[in-house]
From TrEMBL:
GO terms for molecular function: carbohydrate derivative binding; glutamine-fructose-6-phosphate transaminase (isomerizing) activity. The gene is glmS. It catalyses: D-fructose 6-phosphate + L-glutamine = D-glucosamine 6-phosphate + L-glutamate. Catalyzes the first step in hexosamine metabolism, converting fructose-6P into glucosamine-6P using glutamine as a nitrogen source. Pfam families: GATase_6, SIS. NCBIfam families: glmS (TIGR01135), PRK00331.1 (NF001484). This is Glutamine--fructose-6-phosphate aminotransferase [isomerizing]. It comes from Candidatus Magasanikbacteria bacterium RIFOXYD1_FULL_40_23.
Length: 618
């Protein structure tokens, strides 16, 4: 949560910083700010800092900051910027980052939580004047306390006193060519350009300038100038780092003509699904080949239990994965919400395989849970989208889902790609166990058809938009699904509530009569998935029960199911596929329905209230 971007080089910093913030806005958007050291101060070390450092902050989204910056001109090639998701201190301009010390010379932007900020404040005493209620500002004053002319040393001494997490960028008015950044628990990527450096919470702000990056690890501190990058650990010992190449391109992080990132990302799905599965299966052997798993066949055969750990949408992909694994591989699977897993006493041994599933690779609960699983001796692997992210690096192998940048807060293409990767894992394990070549081949052939079938579902966009307009004023929704479509119902419900603020619930079809049925009325529409699979008749009976209570029904049904129209007010047809693959198609109408409802209600689709894309706090 919170996004940081910093630039030091020869280009004008402000546009790079503001555009960078727009890319990171998914990380938080209640206020934003930018601080620049103006070029005229570069030759004179002792200029009046008030004349050389410019700091502009605004409450609300980046547009508000942009508006405030209009008409102001800065000549600066060095600056830092921040977009905030409030933890300590309300949403006010004074709580917005960057923050400064008493002198106004030390300026920082921080992502994370300084847990012992009260003790630190007490230690610093009453001589320090605070201008905000944030924990982050205390860190600026702590650096001031230790500063004796060497910024890196002061930052290191200050960090030695800190309990908590940080992704941090710091500059000082007396060092107009020096940026210090540090990481513990909040991601930072350093982009290496030509005589220029970028530091940001993820690589998207630098994609237009460089693909060469260094991922800062926990406990590392980088001292960055225009010409040089020097990385040390918290004991100030030098560290040599490898550079990595980012594969995402600039275009993939843009809306490409769509009104919102969410819509663009929904429409990305046929393409990125292919990216996820390409080169990862062997048609002749009817199996998948996910080399990153990093386990021998003997180790794979020793696995008696799989635990899938995730949060939010990723946990629903995990639930779909459970059906796939159990059906194809015959291995018992548990799905654990990461925040629960980490605080119970999970029973884990060296025959347990744990997957941490995360789009961002930075979700704090998922990260803590996989660390716990590792400590207990399980095989721990990742299914992650963001390359080089913390979960990707904390696990001993795994698979990138190759969904490309997902910038809308509501996760869409990550869901389908996670589900596809889980399917490939289920197939790979299944083929080592009892699954036949023929079944494996049939599954791969059906999977290969999914991208085209997704396009057929997406072609119904206009129809789904009409449905969204028809139902947008209902204050409640119930989503129903059974079997592999129960997680689809959960995901549809989450999508709807998080971007429209309409109350919705999802229930397994068979559970409805155990309580939720009491909710139903003509004002309580039910969105149900009733595709042709082994539970079709059961689901149909559930829908009959809904119909008898006069609740309006919207169905996702299989093409050619003429009976569906008799049952429901509205039907969205999807192409037939194998049952285990159904989530890859059936989720799409629900994503579009949530999207169009949110647009019809005038919601901020890509940046819904109170949320942030990457939940890096507990
Ligand atoms: O980055 P992650 O996949 O670990 O994120 C997990 C959840 O925070 C995320 O899926 C969240 O539920 C989304 N807002 C759902 O659209």
């Amino acid at each position: 949560m919170c996004g940081i971007v910093a630039y030091i080089g020869s280009k004008q910093a402000l546009p790079i910083l503001v555009n960078g913030l727009r890319r990171l806005e998914y990380r938080g958007y209640d206020s934003a700010g930018v601080a620049l050291i103006e070029n005229r101060s570069q030759s004179t070390e002792s200029r009046n800092p008030e004349a050389s450092i410019q700091c502009v902050r605004a409450v609300g989204k980046i547009d508000n900051l942009s508006e405030k910056l209009k008409g102001q001109s800065f000549d600066s090639t060095f600056g830092i910027a921040h977009t905030r998701w409030a933890t300590h201190g309300g949403v006010t301009e004074s709580n917005a980052h960057p923050h400064s010390d008493c002198s106004g010379k030390i300026i920082l932007a921080h992502n994370g939580i300084i847990e012992n900020y009260r003790e630190l404040k007490e230690k610093l005493g009453s001589s320090h004047i605070y201008k905000s209620e944030t924990d982050s500002e205390v860190l600026a004053h702590l650096i001031e306390f230790y500063y004796r002319g060497d910024l890196r040393k002061a930052v290191l001494e200050a960090l030695a006193q800190v309990c908590g997490t940080y992704g941090l960028v710091v500059m000082h008015g007396d060092h107009p060519s020096l940026l210090v950044s540090a990481r513990l628990g909040s991601p930072l990527v350093i982009g290496l350009g030509e005589q220029e450096y970028f530091v940001a919470s993820d690589a998207t702000p630098m994609l237009a300038y460089t693909k060469k990056v260094i991922f800062l690890e926990d406990g590392e501190v980088a001292e960055v100038s225009r010409e040089n990058l020097h990385i040390v650990n918290l004991k100030d010992q030098n560290i040599t780092k490898q550079t990595s190449q980012i594969e995402w391109d600039e275009a993939s992080a843009q809306k490409q003509g769509f009104d919102h990132f969410m819509l663009k990302e929904i429409f990305d799905q046929p393409t990125v699904l292919q990216d996820a599965i390409r080169g990862r299966y062997k048609t002749e052997e009817g199996t998948a080949h996910l080399a990153g798993l990093n386990m021998t066949d003997a180790e794979m055969r020793s696995i008696k239990r799989v635990i899938l750990i995730a949060c939010g949408t990723a946990s629903y992909a995990a639930m779909a994965g459970k059906y796939m694994f159990e059906r194809l591989a015959g291995i018992p699977v548990e799905v654990d919400v990461a925040s629960e897993f980490r605080y119970r006493d999970p029973i884990i041994d060296n025959q347990t395989l744990v997957f941490g599933i995360s789009q961002s690779g930075e979700t704090a609960d998922t990260l803590a849970a996989i660390k716990e699983a590792k400590r207990k001796g399980a095989f721990v692997r990742g299914i992650v989208n963001v390359v080089g992210s913390t979960i990707a690096r904390e696990t001993d192998g795994g698979t990138y889902i190759h969904a490309g940048p997902e910038l809308a807060v509501a996760s869409t293409k990550a869901f389908t790609n996670m589900t596809a990767i889980l399917l490939l894992y289920a197939l790979q394990f299944g083929r080592l166990n009892k699954l036949s070549v023929a079944t494996g081949q049939r599954l791969l052939a059906a999977l290969a058809e999914i991208p085209e079938k997704m396009k057929l579902v997406l072609a119904q966009n206009e129809k789904i938009k009409e449905l969204a307009n028809k139902y947008k004023n209902n204050p409640n929704f119930l989503f129903l699904g059974r079997g592999v479509n129960f997680p689809v119902a959960l995901e549809g419900s989450l999508k709807l509530k998080e971007i429209t603020y309409i109350h919705s619930e999802a229930v397994a079809g068979g559970e409805m009569k155990h309580g939720p049925i009491a909710l139903l009325s003509p004002m309580f529409p039910v969105f149900a998935i009733m595709t042709k699979n082994q539970l079709y008749d059961k689901m149909r009976s559930n829908i009959e029960e809904v119909k008898a209570r006069k609740a309006p029904i919207i169905l996702v049904a299989t093409e050619g199911d003429l009976g569906a129209a008799e049952l429901a007010q509205d039907v969205i047809f999807v192409p037939p596929t194998m049952e285990v693959l159904e989530p890859l198609l059936n989720t799409l109408p629900l994503q579009l329905f949530a999207y169009h409802t949110a647009v019809a209600l005038g919601r901020d689709v890509d940046r819904p209230r109170n949320l942030a894309k990457s939940v890096t706090v507990e």
